[in-house]
Amino acid sequence: APRDVNIIARDNVFSPPAVDLVPGETVLFHVLNGGLLLHEAIIGDQSVQDAWEMAEASQPPVRPGVTPAVSVPPGLSGLRIVVRTGERVDVLWTVPIDPGEVTKLIVGCHVPGHYAKGMHVPVRIVAQPGAAWRLTGPAG
């Protein structure tokens, strides 16, 4: 069964402060918007984040709650999950198998101004492909 991974978007911050993934696993993202503004969780490396930042910055402002109609070139799209305030969106996704690729992933929001205000978190590997894994708390 896919593992549940929760990402909570609040105004200008994501929780948890990092997203833990296992290369090659299938996860069910639950992205919840607990803020007052529209947010998105874009999962991709820095080139994906840069592409979305440029694309969304060049768009005219939209009414609150309206999803910006914007796109990026196919090779730079990553995974985009848009969530309105109070909404939860669930997406099934398979993590890349290459650990080097996974460690470059970032979760970012590119609604104008959000990324610059720190609305991005890294992805961490919690186990190697095929290995048993468990998440641990701050004590280790």
Main attributes?
2 helices; disordered C terminus; 140 residues; mainly beta; 35% strand; globular; 4-stranded mixed sheet
Number of strand segments: 9
The percentage helix is: 10-25%
As a whole number of angstroms, the C-alpha radius of gyration is 15 Å
First-to-last CA distance: 26 Å
The largest beta-sheet arranges its strands as 3-9-8-5-6
Mean pLDDT: 87
Q: How many separate helices? A: 2
The largest sheet, given as strand count, sense and whether it forms a barrel, is: 5 strands, mixed
Q: Which of globular, elongated, flat, extended, rod-shaped describes the shape?
A: globular
- The portion of residues forming beta strands comes to 35-45%
Uncertain parts: 132-140
Query: What's the order of the H and E elements?
Result: EEEEEHEEHEE
Class from secondary-structure proportions: mainly beta
Describe the structure.
The two termini are 26 Å apart. Helix content is 11%, strand content 35%. The longest helix is centred in the middle third of the chain and has 12 residues, at 46-57. The strands form two sheets. Strands 3-9-8-5-6 form a five-stranded mixed β-sheet, with helices on one face. The chain has helices at residues 46-57, 99-102; strands at 3-10, 13-15, 19-21, 26-33, 39-44, 79-83, 88-94, 106-108, 120-125. A hairpin with a 2-residue loop joins β1 and β2 (13-15). The chain has 140 residues and is mainly β. The radius of gyration is 15 Å and the shape is globular.
